[in-house]
Amino acid sequence: MIKRLVGVRLSSFLSTVKLKKTGGGKASLSWPKIILLSILFLCLGAMFVLMFTALAWSLGILMLPLGLDGMYYGIFMLIAFSLVFIFSIFETKSELFDCRDNELLLAMPIKPSDIVVSRILTVLIYNYVESAFILWPAVIMYAILGGSVYGVIGGVLVYLLLPLLTTSLSAGVGYIIAKIAKKLKNKTVLTTLVSFAFLVLYLISYTSFVGNFGTEVEGESIVFSEIPVISAIGSPAILNPAYAAAFVILSLGLSYLAFRIISKSYVSIVTVGTAAARTEFKGERLVKGGRIRSLVLKDLRRFFTSSTYMLNAGVGAVFAIIAGGAAILYSADIYAWVEKLPILDGALAPLLSAALVLMASMTMISASSLSLEGKSLWILKSMPLSGKEVLISKALSHVVVSAPAMLLSSLLVSVAISASPIDCVFIVLIPQAANIVFALFGIILNTAFPKFNYDNEAQVVKQSLAGTVAMLVGMVYGIIVSGLSIALAVLFSALVSEIVVLILNVALVLGLYFILVGPSARRYEKL
Amino acid sequence: MLKIENLTKRYGDKSAVNNLTLEIADGEICAFIGHNGAGKTTTLKACMGILSFDEGNIYIDGTSVLEDPMTTKKNTAYIPDNPDLYDFMSGVKYLNFVADVYGVDTDGRNDKIFSLADKFGLTQDLAQPISAYSHGMKQKLAIIAAWLHSPKLIIMDEPFVGLDPKASYILKEMMREHCERGGSIFFSTHVLAVAEKLCDKVAIIKDGVLVISGDMNEVLGNDSLENVFLELEGGADND
Fold this sequence. Notes:
The complex is a heterodimer of chains A (about 525) and B (about 240).
Chain A: H1 2-14, H2 31-63, H3 69-97, H4 102-106, H5 112-144, H6 149-182, H7 187-218, H8 220-223, H9 228-234, H10 241-270, H11 291-304, H12 307-313, H13 315-329, H14 331-340, H15 348-361, H16 366-369, H17 377-382, H18 387-416, H19 421-448, H20 457-461, H21 465-491, H22 494-526
Helix pairs in contact in A: 1-5, 2-3, 2-5, 3-5, 3-6, 3-9, 5-6, 5-10, 6-7, 6-10, 7-12, 11-18, 13-15, 13-18, 15-18, 15-19, 15-21, 18-19, 18-22, 19-21, 19-22, 21-22
Chain B: E1 2-11, E2 14-24, E3 29-34, H1 40-48, E4 55-60, E5 63-64, H2 69-74, E6 76-79, H3 91-102, H4 106-120, H5 135-147, E7 153-157, H6 165-180, E8 184-188, H7 192-198, E9 201-206, E10 209-215, H8 216-220, H9 225-233, H10 235-238
Parallel strand pairs in B: 3-8, 3-9, 6-7, 7-8
Antiparallel strand pairs in B: 1-2, 1-4, 4-5, 9-10
Helix pairs in contact in B: 4-5
């Protein structure tokens, strides 16, 4: 039964990417698109593998000759845990508690514990895939650089158990959020706030830990000495008996505990009544509004009433504001950092505007906004609305949410580095232009790869082809812009760098706009 | 008002609708009857311009759905078999959204929304989120939304499913009034008694092929619609 339930979950996830016959008898993805996407995913996968292989190599040649094998693995275990945990924290809650088929399954002769196991296993499979990109390069490079056999076996053990630990913890956090939300009237707002509180708490703890680590490795004499905490974390990977045993017990024990606790309250959480405080209609007069305005307001209402949508697709806007605040608080550190890296002298403003572009790439509202129409798509399709109107309204909704946050962040960053008026203008304009790029790119992708059948919103917002590609391409674009900004600022001047990057973004806006109102709008009309 | 010419829609090798031709005049109510999977929903969606078709053409008030879908959609309203509305909106916000898209003026929308909501007993629930609505309440909201912009043609897929007896009666009244004002209605139903009493015209589809259509009285003769339908379907023999 569990195998079948997991199969259902995975087939639901894979439904967007596999080649299948649709009602119209046409393949949902044409072969050229499949080849193109395969190349894209291979490139992105290769990029991550190369990135972590390079890290493994650079750490390995420094640490392994000094016998710091535990510290080497400790660093990779921390990276894998942090990235996978952040990626899965909100997704796990949706997968566990917000699936549309919860009641359907509970009405069948299936044990709730089997449903819980199947949901946790589904997230676990995703986490194994994500962890593989980080941990396998570490294990392989460890073997290549002459690490011990124990270390290789331990590395495999860590790969097998660490995703279990991550999944259990994210399931535990999801459970706590679901339990709190159950008692609240305004579930969306408070679920979002509680989830953000968890995330911020986690980030503060993590950055504080990593900050300490960074300080210790900065001094040349300390770089090659052991940092006991990190070594202790990595000890299971070199099969230190006590630590390995503790790690096995902790991973398996926490998994079992999470399973038992969630199974016990699963039915009461997922069958919680939707009855909220009744809102009396006071007979207020309705006022006429414009079509695009109404479409944008509709999409904004959808965004702000879904904690899954806000947390997964709008996190960039919040991070941008946090980054702006951090820039003000730590402006002295920014200057100190520039002093240590003279190459950045004069390139700070372009670099920070590129960093804001990277922040903007984390907002992916438009990449799932068409898919989220789901079974309600008939409403827009039966209305006298052109594809252009619908798609532009969705891009605008993205911009409306992200632009104020980016503007605030840009102003805070400008103040933090006492930017000149010209730099200030570019620090504002470049991220705003990039924001429009991401809005247009997201909806173009979503029109090309819509997913209207889904069991929970996370499947669309986070796991769909459009959402995944938007996120990855956005990150790559942010990295390219950062590199380009620094290179141009170093080779020519900050002003040249800013002008070129702004022109690049504006050109992309124009190019993407013409794709949106042309091929994408026509494609929407044929959906 | 509605003219369907040689409509053919295929799903792969299978024809869902095959060479269907049908005409509904101004002021007529036409019932569309057929077994499950006969091709009713496919035909209705093609008329709305929300499903492409392989051959033929459909005209609404003289305008082709293929050539000018914006104009045909302005003159039409659609209620699907399962009203999946925007759960994240309240009833009144949804109706105001629909009114905005169709450009209904402020006075018009207020008069219409509140009079129809009163009729269906939905006024007190208008501020509730649609997610809290029952199937019947969603159906009522979809009906109000469909009537909101005074369309010439209303296309409905199983509109009586989920409605309580009073709401069904109100809907039938509204359908008659709409046709008295010159509008037309094309709807699918399995409730043959309602179709027989309410409609001027009937069209029966079987396996994608229109087996009979015409004025209700001509089609029925001295028989009931149920008998005519079962005879055409071969159901009576099977029983």
